[in-house]
Amino acid sequence: MKSYNVGILGATGAVGREMLKVLEERKFPVNELRLLASQRSVGKTLTFNGKEVKVVLAEKDAFKGLDIVLGAASNPVAIEFKDDIVASGAVFIDNSSAFRGDEDVPLVVPEINPEDIFKNKGVISNPNCSTIITLVAVNAINKLSKIEAMNACTYQATSGAGINGPIELRNQEKALLEGGKIESSVFQYQIAENVIPQIGNFLDNGYTKEEMKMQNEGRKIMHLPELKVTCTCVRVPVVRSHSIAVTVYTENKLDLNDVKNAIANEKGCRLYDDPEKLLYPMPLVTSDQDIVFVGRIRRDLVTDKGITLWCSGDQVRKGAATNAVQIALKLVGLEC
Question: Is 129 a catalytic residue?
Fold first, then answer.
């Protein structure tokens, strides 16, 4: 089997470390692994396949000889090094939002639009984490009848804000128990015992940038240019796994049993729906794995062409690291 030289840009962050873990789990054929990060992380070591690999500085010439670069860094870092990565001959599979809206950059969820991977010009974008989880959950419905609109509310874990999100949650929980001072720096307000109905900056239309991603990215991934989405994004005091309540409005009225059967047989999904047994997706059952759990499937009471469901998935894995590695596997012709 052919092996490949793989780099991880932003290797020491939460997503970068998870990419390393998923590469190993999925037995990606790695020849050379190059861990790239900022100056403060240079010299640190991470373990891959039982061997210690040193972190090196991300700089202009650091990508030479690589075949694939997995991006787990911020927008500014991705923008800074994109041209250098492409010039080196590597394909840049980037988890930031920097290039998602570019017409010549494929935006890919391998279960939905794998064919777009091969239209790349050196860059492939990983979608937003909530977008990935939601679209994997509803893709089977779209195959039964075209989705025309969606109404979604996301319940996003603190780790979606980076490694310091859960730390702030735990520190606040401890302070509440011990009567200490509540300090907030990662989130706008106290997150312990609270929910915050804002993720991202507000736009002129009253929605946040995060909320508009569901529509803008959904249109591109599902090849539904007219798709309309209303979305509210909420930060909740959960460490890991995002959950989404979504109602989809389809072109034709669908049979509820057909919907459940389609979801049960869809790649990347698990039907987890038995109200009598109180069986439904939750962060506690969906964390640290790659499947999107789907449940609470029912007919919308507003229109007979609406289907309402609840889904949950690990946003660090399927919502970021695993999706990127799956793209890489498809890119080199392997099953993901």
Answer: yes
